[in-house]
Amino acid sequence: MISLLELPTELLLLTSKKLKSNDLSRLLQVNHRLYDLLLPSLYQRDVKSSNSQGLIKCAANGNERGVQHFLYWGGAYVDVKAVSNFHRGRGPMSEGKTPLGMAASAGHDAVVSLLLDHGARLNDFEGEKPLTRSYTPAIQALLGGHESTLKLLLERGAETEGPNMLFGGLINCAVASGQMSMLKLLIEFGVDINVEINGVYPLFWAVRRTPNYVSMVEVLLDNGASIALVDDDQGRLVHQAIDNGTIETLHLLLKRGATFHQSVFYPAIRQCTLQTVRLLLEYGAEVNFESLLCAVKSKFCGRLELFIDRGFDLNLRDSRGCTILHHAIRCCGTPTPIFRPPMMCGFGPSPPVVQCPPGSSSQRVAAYCRRKGYGNGTAEDIVRCLVRRGADVNAMDRKRQTPLYFAWKYASPDVQQLLLENGADWTAMLTIY
């Protein structure tokens, strides 16, 4: 009987076609002759039976030799897309990704180079479908935290922005994922940091990102990001820094000349930390009647004291002749407003955060400008503070109504007693009737 190894090559190839893939794989491991003879058949079979899905697995696992065999022997389509999530649970979802995308997201530089040498598609082209749900190979390398892979792709001509790319381009992706090394690499490659993508600039993304890293904002500014271009004289950056950023970010923007509008100061009094309020005062915020009214309504004694210390006249009156004490007493009958998250008109909530890849250096996050909730004082505390600091307890509005009258109408007996103990004239109430 003739042994298997003595069979002619033609018969071995014919026999191999009748075997299952697992059996064929075992057979070619018998000796070198069968390996060299039958290995191409194994790759060709996979290409036909699974539409080159084996190529994607080899690319995802960094199997450079396997990728070579699929391309050389199997004739696999280099831009085939994955049809299943075989990476579920131990990495990024793979469905819809190309071999190049899988290799880039895993940081397999040798496989990336090999695929590019065989004509793998690197960018989206006009008239063609997007590569994979806005995740180009360069985007996938960036989000995977693979700096050398991204550098390789950029050197081979990867586009840095486009309508189908996640966040509109690589710069915004670097900011969204909080990866400083990627941001610096893109700047080294001359990527435009003042490019407007979908109406938003990279600097704006960096300022409104949560968590907020002042270092990323500083790198953009140091490398030519234009505050004036983003601000458009509307105070957008300061507004966003107050809503979503840290005190360090706000301070940096103000120091670099960001536009500040007084209208931003009032919500800051109600919703931000005392340190933020002090910083805005340092950069020109005006203490006026509206400022004190915001502190009174939010029941912030510390803020009220700060404004009084800066020289505000407690006996100034509004258009109805009311002093700030009138307003404070009227607030005794008003519950503290419920805190709600910020919403800037036209922009909605903060952008989604792309998590930093494992092992990437985490940046320090300073204290945020905003605080949770409102003041922990009471309306009675506010009244007591104003009286102690010299508010006129007998001031009359245009209707000859005194603070004591307001206390009788809106406040508790404790507030009425407080005013009487500090010289309020109860007989003045008789003139109202």
TrEMBL record:
ANK repeats lie at residues 95-127, 198-232. Residues 1-46 form the F-box domain. InterPro entries: Ankyrin_rpt, Ankyrin_rpt-contain_sf, F-box_dom. Keywords: ANK repeat, Repeat. PANTHER family: ANKYRIN REPEAT AND PROTEIN KINASE DOMAIN-CONTAINING PROTEIN (PTHR24198), ANKYRIN REPEAT-CONTAINING PROTEIN-RELATED (PTHR24198:SF165). This is Cyclin-like F-box. It comes from Penicillium camemberti (strain FM 013).
